[in-house]
Protein backbone atom coordinates (compact mmCIF):
# COMPACT_ATOMS: atom_id res chain seq x y z
CA UNK A 1 0.00 0.00 0.00
CA UNK A 2 1.45 3.34 -1.06
CA UNK A 3 -1.03 5.73 0.52
CA UNK A 4 -0.97 7.87 -2.65
CA UNK A 5 -4.62 7.36 -3.51
CA UNK A 6 -7.43 7.76 -1.01
CA UNK A 7 -11.11 7.22 -1.76
CA UNK A 8 -13.36 9.47 0.27
CA UNK A 9 -16.59 7.48 0.61
CA UNK A 10 -18.45 10.43 2.12
CA UNK A 11 -17.33 12.55 -0.82
CA UNK A 12 -18.64 9.91 -3.24
CA UNK A 13 -22.00 9.97 -1.43
CA UNK A 14 -22.13 13.78 -1.73
CA UNK A 15 -21.17 13.60 -5.42
CA UNK A 16 -23.87 11.00 -6.04
CA UNK A 17 -26.48 13.16 -4.32
CA UNK A 18 -25.36 16.18 -6.35
CA UNK A 19 -25.50 14.35 -9.70
CA UNK A 20 -28.93 12.90 -8.84
CA UNK A 21 -30.19 16.37 -7.89
CA UNK A 22 -28.90 17.82 -11.18
CA UNK A 23 -30.67 15.09 -13.16
CA UNK A 24 -33.95 15.19 -11.18
CA UNK A 25 -34.17 18.99 -11.48
CA UNK A 26 -33.23 18.70 -15.18
CA UNK A 27 -30.24 21.01 -14.79
CA UNK A 28 -28.25 18.21 -16.40
CA UNK A 29 -29.97 15.80 -18.75
CA UNK A 30 -28.48 12.91 -20.69
CA UNK A 31 -29.52 14.41 -24.04
CA UNK A 32 -27.80 17.72 -23.05
CA UNK A 33 -24.76 15.77 -21.87
CA UNK A 34 -24.61 13.83 -25.13
CA UNK A 35 -24.40 17.04 -27.15
CA UNK A 36 -20.66 17.29 -26.42
CA UNK A 37 -18.56 15.54 -29.11
CA UNK A 38 -16.44 13.49 -26.67
CA UNK A 39 -19.22 12.58 -24.27
CA UNK A 40 -20.85 9.18 -24.43
CA UNK A 41 -24.19 9.68 -26.11
CA UNK A 42 -27.24 8.32 -24.30
CA UNK A 43 -29.52 5.99 -26.25
CA UNK A 44 -32.31 7.39 -28.35
CA UNK A 45 -35.15 7.14 -27.81
CA UNK A 46 -34.49 7.70 -24.13
CA UNK A 47 -35.23 4.71 -21.93
CA UNK A 48 -34.79 5.38 -18.18
CA UNK A 49 -34.41 1.66 -17.40
CA UNK A 50 -32.24 0.75 -20.38
CA UNK A 51 -28.77 -0.77 -20.00
CA UNK A 52 -27.17 1.93 -22.17
CA UNK A 53 -28.83 4.64 -20.07
CA UNK A 54 -27.19 3.16 -16.97
CA UNK A 55 -23.82 3.05 -18.77
CA UNK A 56 -24.24 6.70 -19.75
CA UNK A 57 -25.09 7.68 -16.16
CA UNK A 58 -22.07 5.77 -14.82
CA UNK A 59 -19.85 7.55 -17.36
CA UNK A 60 -21.29 10.97 -16.42
CA UNK A 61 -20.68 10.21 -12.74
CA UNK A 62 -17.04 9.16 -13.19
CA UNK A 63 -16.32 12.23 -15.32
CA UNK A 64 -17.89 14.58 -12.76
CA UNK A 65 -16.04 12.95 -9.87
CA UNK A 66 -12.66 13.02 -11.63
CA UNK A 67 -13.04 16.47 -13.19
CA UNK A 68 -11.34 18.31 -10.32
CA UNK A 69 -8.08 16.43 -10.85
CA UNK A 70 -7.45 18.00 -14.25
CA UNK A 71 -7.38 21.57 -12.93
CA UNK A 72 -3.88 22.96 -13.04
CA UNK A 73 -1.93 26.11 -12.36
CA UNK A 74 -0.57 25.58 -15.89
CA UNK A 75 -3.99 26.02 -17.52
CA UNK A 76 -3.79 27.97 -20.78
CA UNK A 77 0.02 27.88 -20.82
CA UNK A 78 2.32 25.97 -23.20
CA UNK A 79 2.90 23.41 -20.40
CA UNK A 80 -0.82 22.68 -20.03
CA UNK A 81 -1.54 18.94 -19.92
CA UNK A 82 -2.99 17.59 -23.16
CA UNK A 83 -3.96 14.23 -24.58
CA UNK A 84 -4.16 13.29 -28.25
CA UNK A 85 -7.35 11.49 -29.16
CA UNK A 86 -10.10 11.61 -31.74
CA UNK A 87 -11.99 14.85 -32.18
CA UNK A 88 -15.36 13.23 -31.45
CA UNK A 89 -17.17 9.90 -31.54
CA UNK A 90 -18.05 10.34 -35.20
CA UNK A 91 -14.81 12.07 -36.21
CA UNK A 92 -11.65 9.99 -36.63
CA UNK A 93 -9.32 13.01 -36.85
CA UNK A 94 -7.03 13.17 -33.82
CA UNK A 95 -6.41 16.43 -31.96
CA UNK A 96 -4.86 17.41 -28.65
CA UNK A 97 -7.47 18.00 -25.96
CA UNK A 98 -6.66 20.12 -22.90
CA UNK A 99 -8.36 20.96 -19.62
CA UNK A 100 -11.68 19.23 -19.02
CA UNK A 101 -11.66 17.71 -22.51
CA UNK A 102 -8.30 15.99 -21.73
CA UNK A 103 -10.03 14.15 -18.89
CA UNK A 104 -12.87 13.08 -21.16
CA UNK A 105 -10.43 11.94 -23.86
CA UNK A 106 -8.33 10.00 -21.33
CA UNK A 107 -11.37 8.17 -19.92
CA UNK A 108 -12.61 7.37 -23.41
CA UNK A 109 -9.24 6.02 -24.51
Note down, in words, how this protein is organized.
The protein is an alpha+beta fold. 41% of the residues lie in helices and 14% in strands. It is built from four helices and two strands. A two-stranded antiparallel ribbon has the order 1-2. Strand 1 and strand 2 form a beta hairpin. The protein is globular and about 45 Å long. The two termini are 27 Å apart. The mean pLDDT is 78.
Short characterization:
Helices cover 41% and strands 14% of the residues. The protein is α+β, with helices and mostly antiparallel strands and 109 residues long.
Structural descriptors:
4 helices, 2 strands, two-stranded antiparallel sheet, alpha+beta, single chain, 109 residues
The low-pLDDT segments are none
**From the helix content, strand content and strand pairing, which structural class follows?**
alpha+beta
Query: Helical content, roughly?
Result: 40-55%
Mean pLDDT: 78
Amino acid sequence: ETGIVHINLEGIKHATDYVCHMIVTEQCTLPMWGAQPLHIHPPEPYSPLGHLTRQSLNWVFIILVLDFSFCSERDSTPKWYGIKWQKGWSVGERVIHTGYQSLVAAVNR
